[in-house]
Amino acid sequence: MRWLLAGLAGVFVAIVPYLVLSLHSKFRFxxxxxxxxxxxxxxxxxxxxxxxLPLVAGLMLGLxxxxxxxxxxxxxxxxxxxxxEKLTVIKMMLFGFxxxxxxxxxxxxxxxxxxxxxxxTAIIGxxxxxxxPWYLAxxxxxLLAAWVCIEPSWxxxxxxxxxxxxxxxxxxxxxxxxxxxxxxxxxxxVCLLVILFPFYSVFRFKEGVxx
Amino acid sequence: MITKNKxxxxxxxxxxxxxxxILPWAVKLGTNEGSGYPFxxxxxxxxxxxxxxxEKREFKYVDLDGNEYNREVYDSIxxxxxxxxxxxxxxxxxxxNGIEISPQILRSNQFYFRFNPRxxxxxxxxxxxxxxxxxxxxxxxxxxxxxxxxxxxRFYDAESNKLKHKKSxxxxxxxxxxxxxxxxxxxxxxxxxRKPYDEGWFMLDANGQLYQVKMxxxxxxxxxxxxxxxxxxxxxxxxxxxxHRFYGFVFDSEQHxxxxxDVTYELVKLPIEPFDLxxxxxxxxxxxxxxxxxxxxxxxxxxxxxxxxxxxxxDEHTEFRKLSRWEKIHPWIFxxxxxxxxxxxxxxxxxxxxxxxxxxxLNFLIAMGFLIYCKRxxxxxxxxxxxxxxxxxxxGLFALQLFKSRIQETKNIIxxx
Lengths: 211, 417
Prior knowledge:
The structure holds two protein chains of two kinds.
Chain A: H1 2-30, H2 32-42, H3 53-71, H4 74-79, H5 85-115, H6 121-150, H7 154-169, H8 184-194, H9 197-207
Helix pairs in contact in A: 1-2, 1-3, 1-5, 3-6, 5-6, 6-7, 6-8, 6-9
Chain B: H1 4-31, E1 39-43, E2 48-55, E3 58-63, E4 68-69, H2 71-77, H3 83-89, E5 95-96, E6 99-100, H4 103-108, E7 111-115, H5 117-120, E8 145-149, E9 153-157, E10 162-163, H6 165-177, E11 186-188, E12 201-204, E13 210-216, E14 219-224, H7 227-230, E15 233-238, E16 246-252, E17 257-261, E18 267-269, E19 281-286, E20 290-296, E21 300-307, E22 313-320, H8 325-333, E23 337-339, E24 351-353, H9 359-376, H10 383-402, H11 407-411
Antiparallel strand pairs in B: 1-2, 2-3, 3-4, 5-6, 7-19, 8-9, 9-10, 11-12, 12-13, 13-14, 15-16, 16-17, 17-18, 19-20, 20-21, 21-22, 23-24
Helix pairs in contact in B: 1-10, 8-9, 9-10
């Protein structure tokens, strides 16, 4: 788990210089003034390569954290420990949620701070607004992966997977800068509500729903 | 208190909402058709609308009386649209309707203007180029800085990414002197350097006054168009025409459309039906004699022919659209549907549409079928579930089945510590 987190953090850290160098390379080829004009006129997002990365990170972390828990039956054992079950599950999810948020906020902030040296606030602000749904998709993907993994029945697991896929598609409908401007609070609300989903599987797990 | 039932309810609501998005989308994808409006242009020779109809892999040219023309005749009776073909064939007349014509005269009076609701229902990055309007060069040259206008106008040097204090202050002072009240509500103009000439930017100030702001010989040129004193300006879209007749089209809160005359800033109202810039599309195909103002609404397309000089409406025609298969089907199967994207806006958010009471008939049958099934197989069913299916139809039923509790689970109530 530690290695996975370090790997994810490494990828997110490595993409920062890649995107900054790529931007500067484009500056050298096209000229700063021209590139600014193209970005503003055509709404070109030079960090759009990031769009699916938080989603993949969230899914990987969720699967790598909860699949071993289920396979080794350690989750079952954990729920039998003399420790409040809700708190146990919350702590498990909080670990991934906070770790992912930490990686996202640190590397996202670093990227925008470095780009701020060569781009005006108007462009940085637009890209920040564009990037928020991608990171929210990553956090939601982590929670949904936990929901799917904890589910005891394979049939229900498949259903949860399909519903999760459809729900995640809502976060990635456009890469336009201001496309999600009005719906970002809605996406935050969806992400927060999804925290409850894994508890549904925990209830079913406790009830002894057969696999 | 987190209980299984509460989470189950949330899951069912989420699943139902997702199904109301995905299922209508899939049905629409399989049944939707194009609008099918034929291309229509007004003939200044026979003063009649001529339509180009694509039928059996062939184009037919017919007027509204049903008279059919071959391609050569069509070219000659619609000379304003086909003048280049007529020139190539050596058939371009010297005069039309007693007016001398030449390719140059025709070109200078011709323009195409398109307005799509997406032009209005969008947001752009607040960064624009201020071109030198009187550079003396044939082509416009891109500036090495860009400006943003919010609470103040600010120019940023692209090379250093630093604020240009002197230039910013110069424009700020000029705008304040002209009475411009910050913050600017919106900015409209053409940011492309590939335009024939530059007329700068039109900005609506905090008081609803429309200003023209441009740079002439390195100095700010700021002028109140006074359009805001005559009408409640909502939006403007600029255009560069060869004859420099006007700056662009102004839309007001009364849903009227005007053009803003060059230099004098005189507003000339287009005699067309109210235009909703949040929903309707507009295409203007102008020529020496007429403007073909084509307004496309949800169910119809209106063709307004305006005299190029007097701007009076000389003819009109409305074409009604046949309902697509999707439009015929959805009211019977979905009481409503959810869409996240729209052709009329660049914003993504859930839009509830297609409300229909007709679907309640199918919902009733589904709910009755569900009730009979539960009774026959002695399955426990709550009244609230039946009501839910009655309201949401098969989307709700499907969602209930996805997250149903088995009898032995519901008997054994578990509480998490």
